[in-house]
Input
Amino acid sequence: MDFAFILLAFIFGLGLKLLRLPTLIGYLLAGFVLNYFDFTASDALKNIANFGITLMLFTIGLKLNIRDLYKKEVWLGSISHTLIWVTVINLVLIAFSWIGLNLFTSLTWTTQALLAFSLSFSSTVCIVKILEESGEIKTRHGKLAIGILVMQDIFAVLFLVVATGKIPSIWALALLLLFFVKPIWSKILDSVGHGELLILSGFMLAFGGYELFELVGIKGDLGALIIGMFVATHNKSTELSKSLMNFKDLFLIGFFLTIGLSQLPNLQLTLSALILCLFIPIKFMLFFKLFTALKLRARTSYLASLVLSNYSEFGLIVVALLVSLGWLTADWLVILAMAVSFSFVLTSFVYKTSHNQYNHLKSRLRVFEHATILPEDMHCQPINAEVIVIGLGRVGKGAYTSLHSIIGNKVWGMDADPVRIKMLKEMGLQVMTGDGEDVDLWQNMDLTNIKLVLLALPSTDDICNITEQLQHANYKGKIAAIARYEDEIEPLLKAGADKVFNFFTEAGTGFAEESLQLITKQP
Output
């Protein structure tokens, strides 16, 4: 049975990848197919799914700056959206019951409000997966979406506490001591090196945080998130996140399979789920209007709203609780599971072309921008720049340093992560915050004197998108890019890159040439 799960997940995942669609859709389909053939989710698979969610929340915490939650667009945006959404959807559900739609007629005013509340959440699993695959989790809109998700997770935990009557233990106050033990695990992370002990320390912190919070009567997943936020300030947080990424992705396959295995729906339940999916455009429009009203740029508002327009696994948890309390029938758990699955497919499919969508719609969308833009959203103009390095990770930073030693201040660096930019500025580097896929950035920048753009990014899709944006902005200079694998070179050249460097091959060649000089130097 376990092999059947692996085989179907692989077949459907590969099929969707060949169709250039997110593999998570394939895992959902595999779950439905297994369900059709009377397979059920084993306890082992459910545990794997829970492990994946815990690791995912821990890695979110590793990338989250607690100060981001203080921003008005995050806390006010999330609270306002939840209140308005519950009110609007509750009125829609009342209308459905009045016109006599099956299943909706059995809902009371209370259960309608609670169902609307369960639909207010956006999927942490789906959104983080999409943002990671597109390399946008640290962009302005990516961090905004993550901040909204964290606030929604807090709302969910508070609701579960109230609904279940499960009051945290008095010992929960002892969690405040976590602030004082932070130096201890910082020293541990300094000592574990870069191998398997680092990965093991990540598992220990994630699941240790889960168990610690469960022990004092608080939802364990919140503990994994908070512990991740504590570790986020450590200099190994990025390396730790990358080390855990493959484990997290593997475990999350179990989560998507369990959704499909929850129950095989009939036609009536499927139609009800599709009706709920008709509300998703309302969620998008509400997010977009709130974000622009809070002075965010139209592009940031559009991309964040688009990726947040889905239903959440936390909604399933809320409905499961309502079913167990007898407030909703078991059919609603199936309906919401299907609606969540459909919304995953919709978001994954639509967001794939989100940047091109904005390019086509920007003249209409920018009408909604506030007259005053937030200071951190204003574009920077690089002074006297001839070369720009985009992506300041290890490769990009190394390229910047080498170029600076040759042409001095004529080289600038750019990265979408403001925390990284702040650190590099403190080190004296000439850098700026910017998302290379932002067409507005390039069209507001004077590219006349820019002769070369280096794209040192891990995602080939991102490199292709940036190349396209530069072409739209009438950039006339040269473009160089890096590739990690041989089969990535040709697509990048076709996209418009003038030169593509194989990351591993070129590193080996450079190492050999530099080393050879040690024995060929003339006395």
Summary: The CA atoms of residues 74 and 132 lie 20 Å apart.
